[in-house]
Write a structure and sequence with these properties.
With 368 residues, the chain is α+β, with helices and mostly antiparallel strands. The protein has nine helices and 17 strands. It is 29% helix and 34% strand.
Length: 368
């Protein structure tokens, strides 16, 4: 089978997930293309790709549907051919969680597919992962018996800038290396850095033939694989689906109007160190929140304690934020709060301020 034929088979109807992965493997092992995609939450039971959700001039048309997946043609008539392509919408055991995948050009993924998905919030939500989750996903693949010599080839990380002057509050670094994940984690911990993405290579054997594969995963739940799609999707892909399913269950129905008594369900971000002991961090937090995309910030107190209100203009969600202790930030969703919005707010803080552990406030306070 030629490369073109193997690629075309990936977009043929299939009723079996194993068959779909086998077809992907057949195309990727020829080392002429990569599978790119993302894990998303579709928080709307009536959502349809063919509806008017898609921003103009992008059009989306379903080519076929099965219980396993839907194949979609995504087109931008006024752009060059690389901006149009096919996308597989693959279902998962979690009904709200889906995998969107393409084997078309990287330009199609960057210029059309990713912007399309981002524009569909809150109906299609883009989840986020933290450093611990990213490391766990790569380790899940590394400890598989079929995998050998997994090495990190490049990774992006962030760390705090604690000086009081200047607009930039985090330091972003891109590192190229050939180290194990344990060595990379040790370096991150030494500098109080948090991971944003990781690229890696690994070796497998199929029918006594050595195959060198490549992978990439990011905190925005985007991924790329080349060489062995089946191993990647069964380990890292399945791991992302499970993590996103758990996060959806944690973040959904946080708004007060989700309960008859309008009670609050606050979230806490806890830090291992007393980050707010330095009151300058309150001002740093305010500067970060002012950069929340498509939102507004109102500050009521900045010293000695921090109290602010954030409104997400994307869907009208709103939050009160409090810093009342040296290592905890409390986010209290108000009347309206969508899953997509609370993911964005939490990730913005974790990514642009400092990464901490997200908990239910009752759990953080050990309240029964």
């Amino acid at each position: 089978m030629t490369h073109i034929e193997a690629l075309a088979m990936c977009y043929k109807p299939t009723k079996d997930y194993d068959e779909l992965l086998n077809r992907l493997d057949g195309a990727l092992r020829q080392n002429q293309c990569a599978a790119r995609g993302m894990v998303v939450c579709i928080d709307d039971s009536e959502f349809s790709w063919e509806s008017s959700y898609a921003p103009r001039p992008t059009t989306v048309r379903a080519i076929w549907r099965t219980a396993v997946a839907t194949c979609l043609q995504v087109s931008q008539p006024q752009s060059d051919s690389t901006a149009s392509g096919k996308m597989l919408h693959i279902h998962s055991p979690h009904k709200e969680v889906s995998v969107l995948l393409t084997l078309d050009s990287p330009e199609f993924f960057r210029q059309t597919m990713w912007p399309l998905v981002r524009s569909l919030s809150p109906w299609v939500a883009t989840p986020f992962l933290n450093s611990q989750m990213l490391v766990g996903l790569v380790d899940k693949l590394r400890t598989t018996k079929e995998v050998q010599d997994l090495l990190i080839t490049d990774f992006a990380s962030r760390s705090r800038i604690d000086h009081r002057k200047g607009v930039r509050k985090t330091r972003t670094e891109r590192t190229w290396t050939e180290e194990s994940m344990e060595e990379v984690v040790g370096w991150l911990n030494e500098g109080s850095r948090w991971l944003h993405s990781a690229g890696f290579t690994f070796r497998t054997r199929v029918a006594d033939k050595a195959i060198r594969s490549q992978g990439y995963v990011s905190r925005s739940c985007t991924f790329r694989c080349k060489g062995s799609a089946e191993l990647f999707m069964r380990k890292i892909g399945a791991g992302m689906i499970e993590l996103v399913g758990q996060k959806y269950g944690f973040f959904k129905d946080r708004g007060r109007n989700a309960r008859a008594d309008l009670s609050a369900r606050p979230i806490a971000i806890e830090y291992a160190e007393p980050i707010f002991h330095d009151k300058a961090q309150n001002h740093r937090l305010a500067a970060v929140l002012r950069k929340f995309p498509n939102g507004s910030l109102s500050i009521f107190h900045a010293n000695p304690f921090f109290q602010a209100s954030v409104v997400d203009f994307a869907d009208g969600s709103s939050y009160d934020l409090w810093v009342l202790s040296e290592n905890r930030l409390v986010i209290s969703p108000q009347m309206r709060c969508t899953y997509a919005s609370v993911e964005r707010v939490c990730n913005h803080i974790l990514s642009a301020f400092a990464e901490g552990e997200v908990k239910d406030l009752k759990e953080a306070l050990s309240v029964a």
